[in-house]
Each structure stands twice: as C-alpha cells, then as structure tokens.
Amino acid sequence: xxxxxxxxxxxxxxxxxxxxxxxxxxxxxxxxxxxxxxxxxxxxxxxxxxxxxxxxxxxxxxxxxxxxxxxxxxxxxxxxxxxxx
Length: 85
Known about the structure:
By secondary structure, the protein is an all-alpha fold. It has helices spanning 10-31, 35-60.
C-alpha cells in the first residue's frame, strides 16, 4: 500500500485512539476482576467506532473511491454459416 493514503485521516486516528483507550480500560479492569469496568471499557471501544464513523460522515475521513467495473468482453459469437448454393 505504498501509494495509498489508507488510514491517514483525522477520523481514523481519532476512532482508533478512542478504541485503544477503551481496550486498555477493559484490560485493566479484567485483570482487577471488575466486570462493570470491563464492560465500560467495551462501551468506549464501540464509541471509538461511532466517533470515527461520524467524523468520516462529516468529511474528515478518506473519500470513497468508486470502483469502475471492468468492461465485459463480449462473448464469442458464431456467425451463421452462409448457405451454399
């Protein structure tokens, strides 16, 4: 992906950062055996995805590139045989 700008947008950085913080919170509370804190961290992880999606919808993400469908090659057709007279 050398020629790509994949993920280098404010929406991507913000969403991933929030999700990473939620992952760390969940991990810490899981080690401390606190289920409520674990699930709070999981909510933060989901919130990261929601925030990233909203920011992308606001125009802060990478625009979608329309994929051009490859041109269909016509099927080989057989011309009708000329009637011999």
